[in-house]
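Task: complex structure prediction.
Instruction: return structure tokens for all chains below.
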Amino acid sequence: MKKSTNRISVLKTYKLYIGGQFPRTESGRSFAALDAKGNKIANLCLASRKDSREAIVAARAALGGWSQRAASNRGQILYRIAEMLEARKDQFIAELQLQGLSRSAALLETNGAIDRWIYYAGWCDKFQALFSTVNPVASSHYNFSVCEPMGVVAIFAPASPLLGLVSVLAPCLAGGNTAVVLADETKSLCSISLAEVLNSSDVPGGVVNILTGSKTELLPWIAEHRDVNALAYTQRDHTTLSSLKTKATGNLKRVIHWPFTDWSVNKAQSPHLIMDLQEIKTTWHPIQQIAGSGASY
Amino acid sequence: MKKLLPAVYNPLLLAGPAIDQTGVEERTTRFTKRSIKAASKMQGLLLTLRMIDLTTLEGKDSVGKVEQLCYKALHLHDIFEGLPTVAAICVYPSHVHTAKKALLGSSVKVASVATAFPSGQSNLPIKLEETRFAVEEGADEIDMVISRGKFLAGEYAYVFDEIAAIKTACGAARLKVILETGELGSLDEVRKASQLAIAAGADFIKTSTGKIQPAATLPVTLVMLETIRDHYYKTGTMVGMKPAGGISTSKLALHYLVMLNETLGADWMDPHWFRFGASSLANNVLMQIAKEKEGCYQSANYFSVD
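Output:
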């Protein structure tokens, strides 16, 4: 058979990821993803505020199932994400190069992201034992503090297109939260490809929702949404940060600021980052005052 | 009040057009694509609230639960002044008394299901007895189920006579006839059952019990609305419509209102002629109203627990 040289290439449509589905934006709008030289690589969905609302509804619906899942099972699923990412490594390296990274930088970014999922997979069922406490109190109560996920976390993703995104998403999921991610505008390709990995890794639909679009447009709607429990911000723009903090007051959202520029450093992975997205619940349980009885058991 | 003679069955009552399912689905999809401006949307949301039959039909219903629901019917979201009340509370016959007492002095009606709801598997004397009991307890409206087994077996005269007998037992109470379209199998059967129910004296036709999936859908409701329209053209008599089950978002409710307006017109855009059978719809509508008023998306955490 004669080899055809003028085959029309099939370009991927990058869509949103909401509730385990890949819908186009309801607004029908798009924007161009550019490579390092400013050439158009693909059209991306320019998500509307209604898309962000759908994503938050999906994240809320998924929260019960995800947070009540056995912690060890969450660990298995995070590990599975790493496996699937490893299997599609070449795709991510190519995509990162397309967006202007050198081959070695793309390799570092991808390997770093895979290792980060592994790192947090391990922490899923261990951080509770480390951070929960039995508290000494001066009354006949058993008093203990345990970690609980904050709930729906809105993540304004860092510019590091893969490792940075994973570094924020992984501790969020490890702690049993669900997430709505607004990908960084400049390098959004990998975030949608990551959604494909998540979708084939036993992550239940709605646990992670990924939007591509304009931060200026969507940020106020997400930050004011009453059904979001926490905002994770990663850039150093303090005007945006303080505007987030103001808008978060409506329902007293937590605003978490992780201003890393280099996400490959060791400091960018820590169980303390899981704890940043946990609430502490303290319970007073009445007991017989054993110590007071004088028994030296 | 004029004493009506019970309707008499006639096989010709069932003659009607064949339903083009693809056409119906195509048409209903269009109702979901209308652009609704903010002011109209607000009117639509308020109208939706006024059209809701706030429903609790659970085995675990108790006096406390019914009282709580009645309170909710009267105080949808007190933070916002001037909100309407819902149209009615819909409960089992054993809770009509409680609901009636709790709603005393308000315009909220009490609807009661009857006739061995939801299956309808009982005999006529028992169904009549249950209907009379609900009416004596104070029900303003009776939601009956048709005998789907008999209907599907072709015993149309039986189903007809049953509806007519229940209608007589209702007295002044308005009768809603539940077709349970999820069990009828096709839109042709829905059309036939609608014609049968209307001819036998239904004041309202209603899609579903809410206990069977699929419950209310836009296509099924459109077929029923068109039956009502054809009946109106023929006789000049208006019949009400109540989709029930599965309508839990205000967006969907607005689609239904668009369909109602474009099929039956403005005369039907009133709680007297159109109802939503729903339990969680009210909160969703309230969240939308709150969003319009406060400018930010809402959370269920700040609304009453159903």
